Amino acid sequence: MPSQFAGARPARRPLRAAAWAGAGCLTLLLAACGSQPRGEGNYLLDDIDAQRTLPDAGWEALKSELPPVPTEADVLPVENLSRNERFRFGVDPRSIQIAPGLIVRYTLRAVSDMGAENISYESVRCGTREWRTVALYRPGAGWQRPVHDEWRPLLPNTIQHLLRNGVLCSGGGPAGAKASDLAYRVRHWDRYADAMAGRNTQ
Predict the structure, then answer these.
(1) 5-13: which pairs have CB atoms within 8 A and are 24 or more residues apart?
(2) With 134 labelled, which of 15, 26, 110, 194 sits at a CA distance of 20 to 30 A?
């Protein structure tokens, strides 16, 4: 007497073939996704070491792309935490830029308690805790190349140190994928600055 299951086994082969075909399509789909170019400013953890020491753009490349010179109305106020600081600081959100090398650029406006104004366009390298002056504003002359534009270590209790720690940078890279993300953090800097809680201060 023939088994009641006779003739059922051949149906398994198409199912198995379909499963292998589906797995193959999934593999191809994942490979295709992995091969897509990454958007500008999307720094992943596995890219940090490779990005850490990429050179910043030079003066000749940057001088035609310098941001507008800000007024007091253009900047977002940022408070330096040093008790001895005699300057009021502000960052122009329009100037914030994420650059290769785990670098964030921004315009800083500083006004002393005597009314003296200093405006500088700066780069901070998130991965190595360094900063440099890209350009200085001279009244009547516009943006000028600084005499000293080399990278310098971030020192505690400076405005650059505060901006780097948790506001512009996080985890060794920029704290956001877009400049608008960083502008939001500057606007609410007291929520993000690690120095406020005594963290990440080296």
Answers:
(1) none
(2) 194
Whose CA is closest to 163, among 178, 149, 174? Answer: 174
Query: What tokens appear for 70 in the block?
Result: 């800000």
Q: Whole-angstrom Cα distance, residue 171 to residue 50?
A: 15
pLDDT digits (tens, 9 = 90+) for 168-178: 999 889 999 99
Closest CA to 98 of 176, 160, 45: 176
81-94 per-position pLDDT tens digit: 666 568 899 999 99
Kindly give the residue spans of alpha helices, DSSP state H, lying in 35-172.
48-51, 59-62, 159-164
- pTM for this prediction: 0.72
Rounded Cα gap, residues 62 and 73, in angstroms? 25
Only one residue has tokens 């003739």, namely 7
| Tokens describing residue 186 | 């500057």
